[in-house]
Amino acid sequence: MAKSVFISYSWEPEETKAWAEKLGNALKQTGFSVRLDCWDLRAGADLLKYMESAVRESDFVLLICTPEFAAKANAGAGGVGYEKRIVCGELYHGSPEEKFIPLLRAGDPAVALPSYLKSKLYVDFRENAEFESKFRGLASDLGSGPAPARHPEIPWEDSVSKRLDSTKRLFEFARSKSGLGMPKWRAQSWPEEWLDEWPAERIDEFIGAYGFARSTMKLGREAAQDFAFFWLREHNENEFYRYADIFEWLDSHRLRTSAAATGRLADELIRLDDAELQVFKKAYETARSMGRSRAQAEDYALDEAEVDYR
After folding, report:
1. Is 83 within a domain?
2. Which residue, 79, 93, 231, 256, has fewest beta-carbon neighbours within 10 Å?
3. How many domains does the chain have?
């Protein structure tokens, strides 16, 4: 049975969440069962119950340490503070010390490690370029044996070749007028920055989200790039086609007066399953056919689909 890992982190700064997902994906590829709140929870979920079960039932708890994480833990604030109390309680009642592993992601250890973790040996993940070597050591400590490289089933030479192909493709996209339109000096460094944070397999998803934001949402280059990165951070792979369908339906019915507002509503509705989404659409169209305004029809549809949006 796969060993289970719970990843604990502070929701601020925003990039910590993206890095937590990167770590979670790497662990899943290595054979672990991963619990991560942004993957597991939907609107209305019991956060405290989730944190308690995740800490107590997982084989390992990885705590991503940043100055923000330490400040919240030391103050007992928010979810981080609540998790601290659970972890301390588990240690007091005999949980193995090795179950709880601090990962130093940002800042000086004196500031980024909360008081209750200062005595523990941490894994230093502050340098993005060292992610794979540090991850292999962590995976070995967790008991999986040596972790695979970025492309685990591809020979080393082919892996390098694939990365170079990805670098070239990202450079061309960054330079092209239909893409990011960057000057050459900026486009030369951008692919490496991108690949340090995201797997090459998500390039198509990024380019697709960017193109959709430019052509359908009518966003400028900078805003479209922000949207594409937001999509990668906030959503699982292979969901974009569904988001695009929802956005286009909302846009065709003119529920919102701006692309940004339509996007926010679409981002909420994508969390619904297909049956709930159909309820929303049918309820909206029914309310409009009865003479209600768009705003009134939207409120009615949100209530019928049980979406707590406003």
Report:
1. yes
2. 93
3. 2
The one-letter amino acid at 84: K
User: What are 216-247's pLDDT values in tens digits?
Assistant: 888 888 888 888 888 888 776 667 777 878 88
Same domain, 78 and 130: yes
102 touches 120 (CB < 8 A): yes
Query: What is the maximum span of the chain, computed from C-alpha positions, in angstroms?
Result: 66
Query: Does 50 fall in a domain?
Result: yes
Model pLDDT for residues 147-198, shown as the tens digit of each residue: 444 444 445 445 677 788 888 889 998 898 888 888 999 889 888 888 888 8
Cβ burial, residue 94 (10 Å; 0-12/13-18/19+): exposed
Domain around 89: 4-141
Nearest to 259 by CA among 296, 300, 226: 226
Position 273 scores a pLDDT of 79
Query: Within its chain, how far is the Cα of 212 from the centroid?
Result: 20
Question: 290 or 272, which is more confident?
Answer: 290
Helix or strand run (H / E) with residue 33: strand 33-35
